[in-house]
Amino acid sequence: MNSTCVKVTHVIFDLDGLLLDSETVYTRINEEILLGYGKKYTMDLKAKTAGMGMNESINVILKHEDLIGKVTLEQYRKQYLELASKYLPDSKLLPGALRLVKHLAKHLIPIALCTGSNTFEFETKMQKQQELLQLINLRVLADDPSLKRCKPAPDAFLITMQRFVKKPASAANVLVFEDSINGVRAAIAAGMQVIMVPDSRYSKPPDDCKKMIRFVLKNLNEFQPETVGLPPFD
Fold first, then answer.
1. Is 16 noted as a catalytic residue in this protein?
2. Among the options 16, 21, 179, 199, which is catalytic?
3. Sorted alphabetically, which SUPFAM superfamilies does this protein's record hold (predicted)?
4. How much is the pTM?
5. Does 205 sit behind a cis peptide bond, omega within 30 degrees of 0 on the bond before it?
6. Which domains, from first to last, does the chain contain?
7. Residue 202, SS3?
8. What's the mean per-residue pLDDT of the chain?
9. One of 14, 21, 179, 199 is an active-site residue; which one?
10. Of 119, 145, 160, 193, which sits most exposed with the smallest number of CB within 10 A?
C-alpha cells in the first residue's frame, strides 16, 4: 500500500535544521576546527554528515578531508565539544516550529523528537527552549543505549515509534518531518511518510527519493495539517 494513502496518526520531528536553527552553529564549529588543520568545511561535506550522530559525523569528516592518521576522533571531538558548549546555547527556533508543535499537542496527536544529537548536545542547545521541551516528552537521542545505527539507517525512527504510549497501527501511519538527506532516507527505510524541509544551501530532495517524499516545504509555516488528514490550524 502507498503510505501516502494511509491516515497519519503520529508525528516524529527531527530537531537540528528542522525545529531548531542549530545546523548553522554546527557549520561554524566545523569550519573553525578544520581551519586549524588547513582545511575548508564545505556545504557538500555538510550534506554528507547532516543528521548523523557526532562520532559518525566526525569520522566522515576526517576521512573526507584526508585527516585519518593525522587527527584522532578523540582530538576532534574534544575541540568540537568545547565549541559546542560555547555556541549551541544560542540556537533559536526556526519559523513555524513552535506553532506546529503546539497545534499538534493541543489536538492530542502523539508527537516525538528523534535527533542525531547526543545528550550533551541536546541539553546544551535546548537550554533556552523549555516551552518546546514541555510539549514533547518522547525523545530519542543519538546516544540512546538501544540505538546501534544512526541515520540514514531506519533504527532511530523505528525505536521512536515503538516507544509511543499509544502505538500507531503501522509505520505508514507515522509522519516524519526532516531537513536532511540522511534523515529522509531513514524515514523512508522505516516505512514512514516523510515531509522534507531542506536548507537549500546544502540539502535537497535526493533524486531516488523524490516520489516517496510527501511534500517539500521551504519552512514549517508552509505546512497545512489537513493535507495529511490532521486537524487544520485554528
1. yes
2. 16
3. HAD-like (SSF56784)
4. 0.89
5. no
6. 8-20+91-226 (3.40.50.1000), 21-88 (1.10.150.240)
7. coil
8. 94
9. 14
10. 145
